[in-house]
Fold this protein.
Amino acid sequence: RFVMVGKGPGKSNIEQKLKEEIRAAFPNGNAPIFLTGFRKAIPQIMASLTALVVPSIQDAQPLVIPQAFALKKTVIASRIGGIPEIVDAGCGILVAPRDVDALASGIVQALDRRWNESALSTRFERYGRGGEEETLRVCETPISRPAGVARLGTSPPHTPPPSHPDHPTRP
């Protein structure tokens, strides 16, 4: 099964084309492809995946990649921006951007290969500890919770800004 999560430029065009191709390929309606649109519960969704595909054509360093490593998921991604700095042959497959055949081939290769989970988690330790602690906590919660129920954390207590001599704080 394939799950397409998120939104972005051209999403409606991509979604429409995919739906047409899905209907043509699976006329009985049993398509193994799900288009979810925007979702907040990405860690819970990602936990159910075999691999993460990031076919970006422009991206500096998507946070979703270290999140995938935190869950010991391999990554198939476009060779753009800072992605090659964190994805290599030990944890994923890089493909040329906008090359649909290379992307399809990369997905097949990734699904056929047995990945070293400790190498994937090491990659997370190396690149993901900065902002993904929260993701790891969420991912460690029971997956059986309905989407949107898991708490992503609490907001820090509100602290008023310090007063400035030219702009004193009002009581």
User: Anything to note?
Assistant: The helical segments are 11-25, 42-47, 64-70, 83-86, 100-112, 117-127, 133-139. The chain has a mean pLDDT of 77.
